[in-house]
Specification:
The protein is an alpha+beta fold. Strand 1 and strand 2 form a beta hairpin.
């Protein structure tokens, strides 16, 4: 997790005592775990009370991994579910992305003329009936954002900053 002032700590980490470096590493790791826990708590679920759904895999895909390399300690909190970014940031019209679909209806109108193509706002996708004989179409205009990662990071950042400041003051 990046935090203002963390770069300064990273530059000086190699020169710190091993006890202080360990305490800083644990604080960074704990901040990542806290952020991951908050993200799991806030991640939307669909149908969780009904035996699962796409949201369950979203919650289960959230992980925190801490690494130390070359005097730098970082924690990456990640949602690995393929739809995580769409949930976090939204899609389509709901977030200002313009999408139009041109529709050409088959057949003739009341005047005996072919229907003219028209444009609708959104995407059209086919839905087959249970027997698979009949296809109907649905229109979607997108999904509003439902952030769960950013609020988790915003919650963890000031806590980590305060812990690092306390540790550094005690370690000097």
């Amino acid at each position: 997790m990046n935090s203002e002032g963390l770069e300064t700590v990273a530059e000086n980490l190699e020169g710190l005592s091993s006890a202080l470096a360990g305490a800083i590493a644990r604080a960074v790791q704990q901040a990542g775990e806290d952020a991951a826990g908050k993200a799991r708590q806030d991640a939307p679920t669909r149908g969780a009370g009904e035996g699962g759904g796409a949201g369950v895999s979203l919650k289960n895909s959230i992980t925190a991994k801490t690494e130390a390399s070359g005097g730098l300690i970082s924690t990456v909190v990640r949602a690995a579910a393929p739809h995580a970014q769409y949930v976090e940031f939204g899609t389509g019209w709901a977030v200002g992305h313009n999408c139009y679909t041109v529709v050409q209806r088959k057949g003739l109108n009341k005047k005996g003329e072919p229907y003219k193509p028209y444009t609708i706002k959104g995407w059209i996708y086919p839905i087959k009936s249970q027997g698979g004989e009949k296809t109907s179409f649905r229109v979607t205009q997108g999904m509003a954002p439902r952030p769960f990662m950013r609020p988790a990071m915003e919650m963890a950042r000031p806590i980590l900053r305060a812990k690092l400041q306390r540790l550094i003051k005690r370690g000097e």
